[in-house]
Amino acid sequence: MKETKPKIEIKQLIQLIDFKSLPKTLMILVLGLSLISTIASLIVPLFTKNLIDVMSTQSINYTTLLFLLGAFIIQAITGGFSTYFLAYLGEKVVANLRKKLWRKILLLPISYFDKNRSGETISRIYSDTAVVKELISTQLVSIFTGMISLVGSIGILLFLDWSMTLVMLTAVPLIFFIMRPIGSKMRKISIRLQGETANFTSHITQVISEIRLVKAYVAEPVEKKNGEEGVEHLFEVGLKEARLFAILQPLMGFVIMFMLVIVIGYGGYRVASGGLSAGDLVAFILYLFQIIMPITMLTRFFASLQKTMGVTERMMEIFDHQQEDHHTTEQEINPTLPIRFDNVTFAYQSSETILHNVNFTIDSGKVTAIVGPSGSGKTTIFSLLERFYQPSDGVILLGDTPLTDIGLSEWRNEISYVSQESPLLAGTIRENICYAMDREVTEEELTKAAELAYVDEFVKNLPKGYDTEVGERGIMLSGGQRQRIAIARAILHDPKILMLDEATSALDSTSEKVVQEALQNLMIGRTTLVIAHRLSTVVDADQILVMEQGELTGIGNHETLLKNHALYQKLVEQQFRWELQNN
Predict the structure, then answer these.
(1) What percent of the chain has pLDDT over 70?
(2) Which of 272-286, 396-410, 434-448 has the lowest mean pLDDT?
(3) Looking at residue 546, what is its pLDDT?
(4) Which of 104, 382, 556, 560 sits in a 20 to 30 Å window from 7, CA-based?
């Protein structure tokens, strides 16, 4: 098994790089230019040999000198162009890989993000792909041309003097003997380094995004310590990598000097004895460097390949993860049909059961309120309706059709969700209201949605109006303003099914009144589900579901449950007392 694993991973790496997507003409051009540059570099020592041999017997041969100069110029020009085009291919590879990763991440289910921190996922897209780019842009074609240079140099040296060449090549097995154990350690360190980088990125991303929480609780010393520990971990792993290079480079330097001493010493003896000309010795020394360079490239390539293998494993974990199926189905959607939970049971992976055999029907065009203590399963019902998760048992149906038979994108397009947090993206008010619209929104449509959500009341007082920046996560707006923008977004999308996670629970009485009126405008003619915290929402609902420890213990309207359900009576009493105290 251990012998086959690297082959599988190299196939995975080739699959990630996706050479088929790269411009074929440019790839051929890069290889061609690199080949010309390599051939020119192989010719230089031969011309140098002839020039020295001629100079030792007669005056300077200008023809040989011109050929030598021409070889230098060709090598420089072709080398420059091939380096640029190679960098272009490297950037193209990493751009394609990042696009593939981003497309895949967007299709991953919510359960993936429950288990993986956002900073780690960001690290996969940015840091890990940069390692692949390094392999492509600086190593891959270099090793190809380097091997041509190596084979060509050895061939010419064997032709010039085979015995001296064989003596010189005695050091090659030593190089591979050194590289094998170091490469294995390099890979392990690379995997750990990428993991530590991902953890550190995740932590600082979280701290910066919640900097107000940090400052509100004077947590700077705690986060300073946590951040410094992350830096220290990166420092320790970096030192381990440095120690490997500290071993590798002197060893390679020793081997190179060993080869140089052999060539100069043995070559000097051959020149003195008349078995070798001075030009031959100079050519041998130059070709020695032509051999050393590819061997050095080979060691770098091997180290870079081991690092890339490490990040390949991490990226393949994302690519191999099961994704949501967004393919369209032939099943037509009729959102006016009732939605039915049929013996639905749900548990998060490796967790206790959240919902137990839940049965209820949501009638079209009606308001259904869900009440219950914290942790009773209210939000889980919303998550199952959004199809963020699948029931562990039982089925959710639209009419007589299971939701799983309906296209995921088509189903979610029929739903709008307004939560307590009302998430906004950094950008303008206009961009947030029009978010995810698949067509151009007219100014009239935008204004109408804003008026129904009472967004226009505060926008008209802003200098830039709808083009006002909201800040990261809408931090530059009040809670009530964010809620109204979220409602305007839902109105613009015109959903048939509306889900409200009691959008007014965290607002002051003035903002609550305005947002409640906006919600009434939004709820007209739509099937509405509300996670209810306020008595006013519960009283007006057509149907109330009472959840208790994951079980549906009561169903009915306000009057019926107030007479017959003990928990509901308690919830109403608590809420009524709270509203009296706050009004």
Answers:
(1) 85
(2) 272-286
(3) 92
(4) 104
The answer to whether 507 and 515 are in contact (CB under 8 A) is yes
CA 136 to chain centre: 19
* Burial (CB count within 10 angstroms: exposed 0-12, middle 13-18, buried 19+), residue 150: buried
Helix axes 141-160, 24-55, angle to 10 degrees: 30
186-216: pLDDT as tens digits: 767 776 776 777 777 777 877 776 776 677 6
Of 120, 196, 414, 502, the catalytic one is: 502
104 pLDDT higher than 60: yes
The pTM of this model reads 0.72
For residue 75, what is the DSSP state? H
Domain 339-581 has CATH 3.40.50.300: yes
**CA dist., res. 280 & res. 49, Å (int):** 6
C-alpha to C-alpha distances, 506 to 470, 483, 502, 515, nearest whole angstrom: 19, 10, 9, 11
Give residue 274's identity as a one-letter amino acid code.
Answer: G
Residue 297 sits at the vertex; the CA angle it makes with 296 and 301, to the nearest 5 degrees, is 120
Per-domain boundaries in the chain: 9-190+245-319, 339-581
CATH hierarchy code of domain 9-190+245-319: 1.20.1560.10
